[in-house]
Specification:
Largest sheet: 5 strands, parallel
Number of helices: 27
Structural class: alpha/beta
Helix content: 40-55%
Mean pLDDT: 87
Number of domains: 2
Strand order of the largest sheet: 4-7-8-1-9
Distance between the termini: 61 Å
Number of strands: 14
C-alpha cells in the first residue's frame, strides 16, 4: 500500500484514510499481489522454486509462524531475511515509541499518554521495512530479560518512579519487534525454560514482565530456524513450543550441479581484478561443485551434519586467490584456473565437513584429497573415454585400442612430469606439451577448444588417468608429480620413497 511519508501528525494520518493491518495480513496482501503479477520476490534463492518457496508462500497466506528445518548451509537464514520483501515499504509509528506503536492502535504507556495529551497533534514517524527485521541467535546465555524485558532501576531512579509504574519496564527484543519480523536462529540451543517464555507470545500474542498485570497484544511474524542434528547434540525444541509453530518447512541442498553452480557464482566474493584477469573455465566450475556432491555421499563424511554450500563458495574464492597469487609471483598479466588450483583449496574443505570414525582414522586432509580425486574421476568420464573399458578388451586388442597407450608408455619408460603450483603460463604450457600424445588426444576428442581450454584439458587428462590408476600422482611440497604406476609401487615396496610420498596417495589408491 502506498503511503504519504510527508504526514507528520496523527490528525493528518487519520485524514489520509490510512487503515492499520496486522503484519501477517500485510505480508499476505503483498504476497497475493506478487503472485498475481508473476513477480518473484525470492529470486536470490536457487533450487527452492518447486519445494521450499511454495511451502513458505502457503504458510504466509495462512498467516502462520514458520520454522525452517534443515542442515547447515541450506539458506534458512537467507530465506528469513528475504521475508522483508513482503512488508510494506513504510509504516507509521508514534514518534519516540520503543515498540513501534501504531498511532491508530497504541499499546505502550508512552504512546497512550502522548496521544492523550496531544491528540491529533501527536507526532508521527515512518519506519522502513528493513528496520522491521530483528534476528537473534539462540545461545545458552540468552535470558527472558533479553527476549521479553525487565524492570530498569536506572530508569526508575532518573524518572523518580516506583516499581509499580509500568514506565520503568525496559522492553526486550520481542516487544521491540512489534509490527515486524522476529527471527530466532538455531532454536534448539535456547534453554527449555526460555522456550517456555515464548508460549504466551505465540498463542495469545501477549507478554508478561515480572509482576505487572500487563497485556501487550504484540503483532509479530515469528520465524525460527533449526538443524535436525541439534536436537540430539545440543538440545531440543520442547514439544509445546513446537506445537505452537504453525508451519514446519524442510530445506534441502541443491539437487543438481547447475543449480549449485548458480549459488556459488552468485555468492562468491571476487575482486574486480580477479573477475577481469582470471578466467574460470566451465570444467573447473563443474569440478568444484562435484566436490560437494561427492562429500554429501561419502562414507567418510558425517551426513547428519551436512555439507554446507559454503564449501564450494569458499573453495571458488580460494581458487581465484590461488591463481592471483601465482600471477603476482610470475608476472603474468592474465591467467585461468587450473586443476592444480583445485588441489590447492584443501583448506576450504577441511573446515566445512565433519568426519565419521573411519574418516577420522584417515585424517581430514586425506579425506579432502580423496573427495577431490572422486570429483575428478566423476567428471573425467563425461569428457574422456573411460580407461577401465580397456580391461574388458580381449588379449591383444587392449594395447591396440587403448586411447591413452602413448601417454602411459611414455611414463612407463621412466619419464615423469612435475607440476609446480606457481609456474607461469609459459612454463605450464611447456610442461604439458612435453608429454607425447597428450595434446593429440585432447585435440582429437575436443577439436573446438581454444588454447587455454586445451591446456586445461591436457592437465585434467593427467589427473584423470591418475585417478583411474593408469599412472601415479604424488604430492610435492608445491605441486604434484606424475610418473609410471608400476615403478612407483615398486619404489614404495622397496622403502626407497621419501616420507613426502604422501599418505593421501596411498589413501586414494586404496579407495579407487
Amino acid at each position: 500500500m502506498k503511503v504519504n511519508t510527508e504526514i507528520k501528525t496523527l490528525g493528518q494520518l487519520k485524514a489520509s484514510g490510512y487503515q492499520s493491518k496486522s503484519v501477517k495480513e500485510e505480508m499476505r496482501q503483498n504476497l497475493v499481489a506478487s503472485l498475481k503479477n508473476k513477480k518473484n520476490l525470492f529470486d536470490k534463492i536457487k533450487g527452492y522454486e518447486e519445494t521450499v518457496i511454495p511451502q513458505m508462500q502457503t504458510a504466509v497466506l495462512s498467516k502462520h509462524n514458520i520454522i525452517f528445518l534443515g542442515l547447515r548451509g541450506q539458506a534458512k537464514t537467507r530465506m528469513a531475511r528475504l521475508m522483508t520483501n513482503l512488508l510494506d515499504e513504510y509504516i507509521p509509528i508514534v514518534e519516540g515509541s520503543e515498540i513501534n506503536d501504531d498511532p491508530l492502535n497504541p499499546l505502550s504507556r508512552y504512546a497512550l499518554d502522548l496521544i492523550e495529551n496531544k491528540g491529533d497533534e501527536t507526532p508521527i514517524a515512518w519506519l522502513h521495512k528493513d528496520v522491521r527485521y530483528t534476528e537473534k541467535l539462540a545461545t545458552p546465555d540468552v535470558s527472558v530479560s533479553d527476549l521479553i524485558g525487565d524492570l530498569d532501576p536506572i530508569k526508575a531512579a532518573s524518572m523518580k518512579l516506583t516499581y509499580a509504574d509500568e514506565r520503568v519496564i525496559h522492553f526486550g527484543l520481542i516487544p521491540r519487534s512489534h509490527r515486524g519480523i522476529f527471527v530466532i536462529n538455531e532454536l534448539p540451543d535456547l534453554q527449555p525454560r526460555i522456550q517456555v517464555a515464548l508460549f504466551n507470545i505465540l498463542q495469545e500474542g501477549d507478554i508478561q514482565i515480572r509482576g505487572f498485570k500487563l497485556r501487550l497484544p504484540l503483532d509479530i511474524q515469528f520465524i525460527f530456524t533449526a538443524n535436525p542434528e541439534d536436537y540430539t547434540n545440543r538440545g531440543s525444541i520442547i514439544t509445546p513450543l513446537k506445537d505452537r509453530i504453525d508451519s514446519q518447512i524442510l530445506t534441502h541442498y541443491p539437487k543438481a550441479i547447475d543449480v549449485s553452480r548458480q549459488i556459488t557464482e552468485q555468492e562468491a566474493r571476487l575482486s574486480e581484478f580477479q573477475k577481469t584477469n582470471i578466467k574460470a573455465p566451465e570444467l573447473i566450475k563443474q569440478l568444484v561443485e562435484q566436490i560437494s556432491f561427492e562429500a554429501r555421499k561419502s562414507e567418510y563424511v558425517d551426513q547428519k551434519s551436512g555439507v554446507s554450500a559454503r564449501l564450494t563458495i569458499s573453495a571458488f574464492e580460494n581458487m581465484y586467490s590461488t591463481a592471483e597469487r601465482r600471477m603476482l609471483l610470475t608476472g603474468d598479466e592474465k591467467t585461468f584456473l587450473r586443476v592444480s588450483d583445485v588441489l590447492g583449496v584443501v583448506a576450504s574443505i577441511t573446515g566445512k565437513i565433519e568426519l565419521v570414525y573411519e574418516g577420522e582414522l584417515e585424517g581430514i586432509s586425506s579425506v579432502a584429497l580423496h573427495l577431490i580425486g572422486k570429483a575428478i574421476r566423476e567428471e573425467f568420464g563425461t569428457i574422456f573415454p573411460n580407461p577401465e573399458k580397456n580391461r574388458k578388451l580381449k588379449k591383444g586388442q587392449e594395447k591396440k585400442n587403448n586411447t591413452y597407450k602413448e601417454i602411459i608408455d611414455w611414463f612407463n619408460n621412466g619419464n615423469h612430469v612435475d607440476f609446480f603450483q606457481n609456474i607461469s603460463n609459459e612454463e605450464y604450457e611447456k610442461t604439458l606439451k612435453s608429454v607425447p600424445g597428450l595434446e593429440t588426444i585432447v585435440t582429437t576428442i575436443h577439436p573446438t577448444l581454444n588454447k587455454d581450454e586445451k591446456l586445461l584439458y591436457m592437465e585434467f587428462l593427467l589427473h584423470g588417468l591418475a585417478e583411474y590408476s593408469q599412472i601415479s600422482k604424488h604430492k610435492l611440497d608445491s605441486g604434484v608429480q606424475f610418473k609410471d604406476l608400476l615403478g612407483s609401487l615398486l619404489t614404495n615396496v622397496g622403502g626407497l620413497e621419501d616420507d613426502d610420498n604422501e599418505e593421501a596417495d596411498d589413501f586414494n589408491h586404496r579407495n579407487n
